[in-house]
Amino acid sequence: MLTMKNWGAAALIAPLLALGTLGAPAQALAQPAVPVAPSVRGLPDFTDLVDQASPAVVNIRTVERVRGGSGRGGAGDEEMQELLRRFFGIPLPGAPRQPGPRQSPQEQPSEREVPRGVGSGFIITADGFVMTNAHVVEGADEVLVTLTDKREFKARIVGADKRTDVAVVKIDASGLPAVRVGDVGRLRVGEWVMAIGSPFGLENTVTAGIVSAKQRDTGEYLPFIQTDVAVNPGNSGGPLINMRGEVVGINSQIYSRSGGFMGISFAIPIDEAMRVSEQLRATGKVTRGRIGVQIAEVTRDVAESIGLGKAQGALVRSVENGSPAEKAGIEAGDIITRFEGKTIDKASDLPRLVGNTKPGSRSAITVFRRGHARDLTINVAELEPEQTARRPAARGSDAPKSAGAAQAMGITVAELTDAQKRELKVKRGVRVEATADAAARAGLREGDVILSVGNVDVGNVRDFEAAVAKADRGKTINMLVQRGELVQYVLIRPAR
Fold this sequence. Notes:
Pdz3 Domain; Thrombin, subunit H; 496 residues; 13 helices; disordered N terminus; alpha+beta; 6-stranded antiparallel β-barrel
C-alpha cells in the first residue's frame, strides 16, 4: 500500500537551521518537529459483512412454458450457456437439458419449460417474503427461489410494480434469515457498499465499490442511488449493502454501451422499495395519486424571464380535461412550486410526491402564475393507465393579423376563430402565421398559439400588439406558447 509521508516540516526547517535564521535561539529551533499522522485509511474488509448478509440473498430463476419451437431464448443465451459449459463445466442454471442420443423428435413433449432468465433477490421476512425486481419475474409461468443452503422453492408472485421495478414473491418456509433494512438518509456519497447476487447465474457473487451519487433521476417515480459496484445481468433484484450490513438499495439497472458493466450502476432506494412492498403484500398492487397534468423542467432563462428568480418547480405544459388540476384552477403555463408544503426543486419531484399521496386526499398546492404565487387546493385522484390523445392542428384563417412592433420582431399572428378555440381547447391567444429573425431563432413556428407575452395574457391581436409594444425590446421577452397539446415558454432575445 502506498502511504503519504509528512515531508513538509523537515524539508523546510532543516535548511533554515543551517543558516541560523527564523530569528530564534538555536535551542528553540532544534526542538524536534511533532510528526503529523497522515490521513490514510486501509481498504475495508467485507468478509464479516458477507457472512452476515449472504444467507438472506437468494437466486431466482424464472421459467416459461411454450408449445413447440425453441421459446424466446436467442443466440446470445445459447452463447452464454456454451461459455459457462466450457469454462465452468456446468450449464447455465436452469438451462434445458440436451436431448440424449436415444431421444427422437417424436418423444419431445408438445409443451416444455424454457428458462427465461436468472436474477437475484433477498428475504425481507422470516416467513418467506422475498423482494426482487419486477422485470426479473415479468412474464414468468414459474419462479424458482434457491437459498444459499441449496434448498429450492417454487415461489408465488405476490405482486409487481413496473413503475418502480419492485416485486415481492412468497415461498413456503419459516425461520429464514432476513436482511436488516438501512436508512437511506444516512447514506453518503463516497461510502463503501457491496452487492451480492447471481451475475450470469453465478450464485452468491460479491462485488464492492462506492456510492457515486444520490438522487439520480433516471426513473419516473424513483431517485436512484448510483454506484460503481460491478453489476451485470443476473444481479438484478439483489441487495446493495452498506458497511453496517444493512440493505440500502435494490440493484436494478446499469449504464452500458456494450451490454456489460461499465462502471455505472443504479439501485432503487430501499425506503421507496419498502413502501411499495407493503402495498404489494397488502393488496397485490400499488395505488398512486394523480392530478392530471403534463410537466417539464423550468430552465434558468425562463425562471429569470418570468420573475420566478431561480430554476425550480414544474412547468405545466397541459391540463387534462376534467382532471383534478383543472377543477383546482391550474392552467397551462403555471409553475407548480410546492405540493403539501414540500418544495418542488425539479419537475421529477412532483410525480413522486403526488404518486405517494393517497387518492381522495385534499392537498395544498402552490403555483406561480404571471409574476405571482397562488395557493390552491386540489383533490388527488387515483392514477390510471396513461392515455394520449392528439388534437388536430389549427388551420389558417382570414382573421385580422398583426403589424408594427410584432412584425419588427419577426412575428406575424392572426386572430383565433371560435371554431379554432374549441378545436384547440383554449380560451385566449393568437395564432402564429409566420416567423423570421428573432422569433425564428427562438423556435417559434407557424401554427403555434401565443397565450401570453411578458406575463400578460393575450386575448386577441390587439392585446398581443399592446403587450409587445409595452415590453422592453432590449431585454429577453417571454412568451407562453401552445404547440399541439402542450405549452412551453419561448424566449425572444434582443438582436445583438
